[in-house]
Design goal:
Helices cover about 35% and strands about 25% of the residues. It is built from 5 helices and 4 strands, in the order αβαααβαββ. A hairpin with a 2-residue loop joins strand 3 and strand 4.
């Protein structure tokens, strides 16, 4: 019986791949400005993640770029952009940014994208200046 248990334990160890750490797969600076506060239908966005997503759609799809917006290697793909509202978080010390943007203030942000290959798992947003 012990031999069966050892074989089962060995097979389990061999079958489970080792965990990989998520890596920084891209980063960019962006000016979140009034052009990003509205969706493609002209409706005011009331979610910070949606504004981040619209900024990337404006950059990659619509060519409506603020002068300070930078290219990123991930969000040129619409499917990857669609993930943004569910994967963002704000770095400690920059917690005021979502509220400021949602109240209509322009903010310059630094966005770091973490994940595997070109698939983002989470993004970190912080102040872009200073």
């Amino acid at each position: 019986m012990r031999g069966v248990f050892l074989i089962a334990a060995f097979l389990l160890l061999v079958a489970v791949p080792p965990a990989r750490a998520q890596q920084l797969i891209g980063e960019y600076f962006a000016l979140l400005s009034p052009v990003d506060f509205y969706n493609s239908n002209g409706v005011r966005l009331r979610d910070f993640g949606a504004i981040l997503q619209q900024d990337r759609a404006n950059f990659h799809r619509f060519g409506r770029r603020d002068d300070l917006d930078q290219w990123d290697p991930v969000f040129g793909d619409a499917g990857q952009r669609a993930r943004i509202p569910g994967i963002w978080s704000v770095v400690q010390g920059s917690e005021y940014i979502p509220g400021a943007v949602l109240s209509g203030q322009t903010r310059y942000v630094w966005v770091r994208i973490y994940g595997f290959g070109t698939v983002p798992s989470y993004i970190l947003v912080s102040e872009g200046a200073g």
